[in-house]
Design a protein that fits this description.
The protein has 277 residues and is an alpha+beta fold. It is 26% helix and 22% strand. The longest helix is centred in the middle third of the chain and has 20 residues. The two termini are 29 Å apart.
Length: 277
């Protein structure tokens, strides 16, 4: 079986490395769980697709975020999300991600939408926090709405500054056009220009979304390793415990503190927490 829970088990079993490794990517990840591994592009890693069963689908996408403070690092180019369509990552037969996943034995199209997780290491005054957190912790409104509403603010500011007026129909059309991240990520070539231009989106967490912030989320204690997953219903909690039990064994579940934290904008999340030291 392959899943983010099996990946978390790998992290817990070798948790002492988080204290000493210079870079998060230096952690001895269990390569047998991975279908791809990259550097400099999203995702940094992906879990293999699991054979069909009741508990695990596998296929999760993972991004590494290393911080020398208790602030989640900015997300460059890729806006954080809880789920990602695999077709938006694999474009063309020459895709490196596609080749790696196929070589790992994945039937890529058998799981078209993937859960996204972020592996975060934060450091402060000799203390460390390790979190494997579902991307919905950071995606509290849909990406399209985030982009379009941000663009709407820019448009409103420029209209006020210029004194120009645009009717609502034209304004809404312009905002709707700029609601897809792909519109910004393409390289633009302009006649007679000696350079090419590509706009990049950088996403920074607000205090309410900074899970490393001890004042906002005191449940995430210093020197702990945590799995953080959405928990909007009691069924979500039961399924998560069942999955953890299947991976770690019922007798070892008591090593984890089971916590429930309230996100400021996005409901409750379940936390499985273990001491790092």
């Amino acid at each position: 079986m392959y899943s983010i829970y099996h990946f978390f088990k790998n992290l817990v079993e070798d948790k002492e490395y988080f204290i000493s490794i210079p870079k998060l990517e230096d952690f001895p990840f269990n390569s047998s769980l991975l279908s791809c591994r990259n550097k400099g592009q999203f995702p940094d890693m992906a879990i293999k697709i699991s054979p069909k069963n009741e508990l695990f689908t596998g296929g999760e996408l993972i991004e590494l975020k290393d911080s020398y403070t208790y602030t989640v690092p900015s997300f460059n180019s890729t806006i954080p999300t809880g789920k990602k369509e695999i077709s938006k990552l694999i474009k063309g037969e020459s895709s490196v991600i596609k080749k790696q996943m196929e070589e790992a034995g994945d039937d890529i199209n058998s799981l078209s939408v993937r859960d996204v997780y972020y592996l975060i290491r934060g450091k402060k005054q000799g203390n460390i926090k390790i979190l494997l957190v579902h991307g919905s912790f950071f995606e509290t409104i849909q990406i399209g709405d985030l982009i379009s509403q941000s663009f709407s603010q820019v448009l409103e500011e420029r209209l006020r500054q210029s004194g120009l007026k645009v009717n609502d129909e034209v304004k809404n059309t312009l905002i709707a056009i700029f609601s897809e991240q792909e519109n910004f990520s393409k390289v633009r070539t302009i006649d007679k220009a000696s350079v090419k231009l590509r706009f990049r989106i950088m996403t920074e967490v607000k205090a309410e979304g900074n899970i490393l912030n001890s004042k906002k989320y005191p449940e995430i204690a210093d020197n702990t390793i945590n799995l953080v997953i959405p928990c909007h219903t009691e069924i979500d909690k039961e399924i998560a415990i069942k999955r953890m039990s299947a991976v770690f064994g019922k007798n070892k579940l008591d090593i984890f503190k089971l916590l429930k934290i309230k996100h400021y904008f996005n409901g409750y999340f379940l936390v499985f927490q273990d001491d790092l030291i």
